Amino acid sequence: MQFGIFTVTDITQDPTTGRTPSEHERIKGTVAIAKHAEEVGLDVFALGEHHNPPFWSSSPTTTLANIAGQTSTLQLSTATTLITTNDPVKLAEDYAMLQHVSDGRVDLMLGRGNTGPVYPWFGQDIRQGLPLALENYELLHRLWREDVVDWSGKFRTPLQGFTATPRPLDDVPPFVWHGSIRTPEVADQAAFYGDGFFANHIFWPASHTQRMIALYRQRFEHHGHGTAAQAIVGLGGQVFMRKNSQDAVNEFRPYFDNAPVYGHGPSLEDFTQQTPLTVGSPQEVVDKTLGFRDYVGDYQRQLWLIDHAGLPLKTVLEQLDLLGEEVVPVLRKEFAKNRPAEVPDAPTHASLVQAKYGDQAPRQATPNANRGDNLTLGSPYQDTAVVDSSKPGSAFGAAATRKEFVR
Amino acid sequence: MTTKRIVIISAGLSTPSSTRQLADRMTADAVSIMRERGVEVEAQVFELRDLAHDITNHLLLGFAPPKLQEALDAVATADGLIAVTPIFSTSYAGLFKSFIDVIDPQALTDLPVLIGATGGTSRHSLAIDYAIRPLFTYLHAIPVTTGVFAATSDWGNGGDGVRSLPDRIFRGAKEFAELVERTDRSDLVSDPFALDRPVGHLVGGFTGE
User: Fold this and answer.
1) High-pLDDT (> 90) share of chain A, %
2) Residue of chain A minimizing CA distance to B195
3) Which residues, including other chains, have CB under 8 Å from residue B169's CB and lie 6 or more apart?
4) Does B162 touch chain A (CB under 8 A)?
5) Assuming Cys at both sites, which of A17, A402, B143, B166 could form a disulfide with B136, CB separation 3.0 to 4.6 Å?
6) Which residue intervals make up region (Disordered) (chain A) (predicted)?
């Protein structure tokens, strides 16, 4: 099981001091947080994407590449990547690049975003949010799996003879999670492709998350990717800890009361009771997190939000220390107990390479000189037989069915 | 004998509330008309005053605390709705509108609605038709043609001398009862998260089913 943190990249005034960090300070602080996550033994750092103040993370692959250069084991992910308003072609290119520079430590979590005007700013219509998510992902999926793509759809200019470069590392696309709070179609989309499903669980009651996950698991089995128990599930969570529970409550309350989204709404006590937010001792976080398994089953990835609402960098780093020292080691041990053998770990680049190639060497895409003959000769790469593009959208693409390489 | 489920929402703010009193009278007439015709009725009343904090939290957060969720589920799966609000500053009470705003936009489709309103004087009585009725029409609910407005004077003998408040309540309740009897709405409500729901319902369809 993987444990990590995710950030929405808000720049918020610290309500206890009145101070608001600059964009630069917060960006550098977030890189420090990611590095410390690795130092304390966490597995995953996931970064949000926004295109409006007070958020800073408009260009996630730039940030993640910088973090990749300063870490060695940390899995880099997103929370979320906007599949609606980003061009799937650019996503295919950017995240394949990130795979190469990070040596495969990349996956993505796709989402539709929650800021209405982002759609028109990027030339889209929010009423088409779901169709955009479906069509854009279908194209992204193909661009990572087929060397040459001919494509036309409703939302983007058509492609003829297009190759997304670089090809994914080892010709294995990044693993994809689909995130949604309330849209059953997205759970079905994740299940259809055999991808992961992430429930950002933090503003919503457990009963709702339970139903979304149950639907995803059932569809995962329906679409033939394995049993319901083998579906790949991730959960969000939100914690604030001090050694003594009451100290945590006292320190966090002003941040809670003034936070974006839930500030000036329900009381901390009601919200803690109704959602996965835990404010208390490390042991309380352990207990609450273990309880998630009771309603979603054995799952693969747990991410926590720990750095929002104006919490100072020093405090966030202390939260990471507590997670690394007192929470995650216990959770690793406890979640491993009684975990059925059939429940897989979250896919990583190494596990996906192993699944695709076994003991064979992975493909290393090496281009031919481009004489404009991509279409006439079938492939722009030296090591590839003519790509069978007759099966667009198959779960693992044409590359997965290739039996031998022409070298 | 079939059982129909009707839900009553009352947006009165004071206790006791003449809005609730009107709602109860409308409910009593509707229930007795249906029972006379052999239709069993379950009626569930929600005072929005009791849900006011939850409604605000839903507006701020996007999810309903448990007590409010119960009310939203009840309305979404009902065979009929009796909706009664005070008229403030020429329109429905803000609390009433806030409750309507947190209802899923599809949740009231085909729902028979009997509208009631209370106000200081009968000069506000058209608020039912220019403010409340369009709200339900927008949501594809079916408000019956008679809306019942009760001015303060209607509770004594100073009201409409020709058609009394009880007459108007009865007329609205009868129209409502006839629609509720005929609807099979509560049997048709579909749950997007239901595990036995047929697949292939997605936009475009993943499987071509």
Assistant:
1) 81
2) A215
3) B22, B25, B26, B29, B148
4) no
5) B143
6) 362-407
| Nearest CB neighbour to B63, from listed A204, A211, A264 | A204
Q: Which residue has the tokens 């509108």?
A: B97
Query: How far B191 CA sits from the closest chain A CA (Å)?
Result: 10
* Spatial separation of the C-alpha atoms in residues A47 and A54, rounded to whole Å: 15
Show contacts of B24-27: CB within 8 Å, 24+ apart.
Answer: B25/B166, B25/B169, B26/B82, B26/B84, B26/B114, B26/B116, B26/B148, B26/B169, B26/B172, B26/B173, B27/B82
pLDDT at residue B119 tops 90: yes
pLDDT bracket for residue B159 (50, 70, 90)? low
Token pair, residue A7, equals: 């950030």
Which DSSP letter does residue A362 get? P
Which residue of B61, B202, B206 is in closest CB contact with A265? Answer: B61
Instruction: For chain A, list the domains and their CATH numbers.
Output: 2-365 (3.20.20.30)
Rg, Å, chain A Cα set: 21
Residue B112 has pLDDT above 80, yes or no: yes
Closest chain B residue to A129 measured between Cα atoms? B203
Cβ contacts from A onto B, under 8 A = 56
Cα gap A398→A400, rounded to integer Å: 5
Give the integer Cα–Cα distance in Å for A161 and B25: 72
A161 CB within 8 Å of a chain B CB = no
The partner residue sitting opposite A188, judged by closest CB among B53, B62, B202, is B202
Residue among A384, A314, A373, A310 at smallest CA distance from A145: A384
- The CATH code of domain B3-188 reads 3.40.50.360
User: B28: part of which helix (H) or strand (E)?
Assistant: helix B18-36
Mean pLDDT for chain B overall: 90
State mean pLDDT over A98-114. Answer: 94
The residue of B58, B59, B60, B61 whose CB has the most chain A CBs within 10 angstroms, and thus the best one to mutate to test that interface, is: B61
> What's the token pair of residue A160?
């003829």
**Mean pLDDT for the stretch of residues A174-192:** 93
